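pasting for ref
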Amino acid sequence: MYQMMIIDDEPVVREGLKHLLPWEEYEFQIVAEGIDGNDGLKKVVEYKPDLVLVDVKMPGMNGLELIKKAKESGYEGVFLLLTGYSDFEFAKSAVSLGVRAYLLKPIDEEELAEVVKKVRQELEEKNKENDAIRQKEESARREMFRRLLLYSETKEVLREQMRNYEREFAYPVFCVAILHEKSKKGDGFIPYPSDEKLKQMIKDMEETEYVSMEDCWILICKGHSYEYFLKKLLANNEKVKNLYKEEYFIFMGHDVAHWEDLHYSYESARMLMRYRFLYHAQNAITIKALEQEQHDTMPDPQDQLCAQIEIGDLEGMEKTLHNVEGYCKAKLFTEPEAKIYLTHQMIKLKMMLEERYDEKKGEFPDFDELTRKIKNGESLFEILNEIKEYAKEVSHIAGASGADNVVKRVSAYLEKNYHKDIKLEAIAKMFNYNSAYLGKVFKKEMGESFNNVLDHIRIENAKKLLSETDLKVYQVSERIGYSNIDYFYAKFKRYVGVSPKEYKKVVPQVIPVVPVPDKIASEV
């Protein structure tokens, strides 16, 4: 839809022209009206309409003066001059001002329609020409950036091209970012986001050039560090997610000091695309993220997971899988490498569990389904979540096999969480047992009550802290789960034979130690 204005000092004429033609059928929309020459000129400069119908005789400034001043201000639209018979000769001078046509009042509908059709055709042709020019310029600009990023031309050639396109590269630092649709899968680049999404992604980032290349958006960021631009891109990415229910993964190249070195930043961003699978949950990846990943050689995690599954240690499972994630990142596994590694570990875990719980293996969740999820997983984060859910389900099934196993699971929990405020009722609820029943089972299996076993574990850890650290007695009391220091003193003397202060003063080895229940020593 093209925009147009009507400028005439007579309201009746303006109103008549508004209804003389069905303007929208001719693809014109009236955006403003001028009530005289001065008002009309101001609005022409402000609205910059494609077509202006202007009267010759108006108070303050006539139509020809208005056209002349509008042209001088840079306005490039089309004028149609409206004039009376007595103004006919005067109107001829409008030709020198580039007026498209002048029409005699009263305006003939058919004549106006014919002129408007021609104006619309001229505007369409002009737009096509402008589009062709823009496309040609964009193609040349894209080629210039491609050569810059791929460094396929000499500095002299690149400098000349940048001067031709009036690109300013006098900045102290540069970096390159690549945008990749997060929801897409597969190797290589994918179709780049729409213009609307791109505009949102680079909002308030004036120092950014962008270009589509190899079916993705490449951003050339100028004047600030990659950390500055990454922060802005992540914030804008969140807005894109809210607006379009989609988001993008950002591969951020490192900083370079000269525009001639931009290809290094681009190459680092391209290299980071290999590790999108590992960092999918973070929405972005930088060289710094890779440098921070440090992990020693990790033992096979299936041993840890198997033990944690047996005792229902959900917290331990999460920690083990977190370590697996860190290990994969530290090794910079590609997607196939990570999936092969995880599948291999899960096969070994399955074999260990089936050997220990032969009578229960028919109840275990479908292992083939787990391996399918590993194979088709979009990210390391997603796959590890699937493994965690599988382990939790197996743990629930394995944990239902006998009182001895339940006691083992509860004892292991106490060993890890003795410092917390632990009550039998809460533990029973956690393990889906009646508290009275669990208390009886626990005493029968351990030979000690639940509270006594918990006290033994706490006191053993208190002895370690008193002999191996400089912590005060009250600090040790808090560390092992006793908030009341008098209660701690009483318990410690009961089990050790001396007070905590006395114990701290002498060599621990000479103090007689009350034996820990056999079940704790052998199974926990």
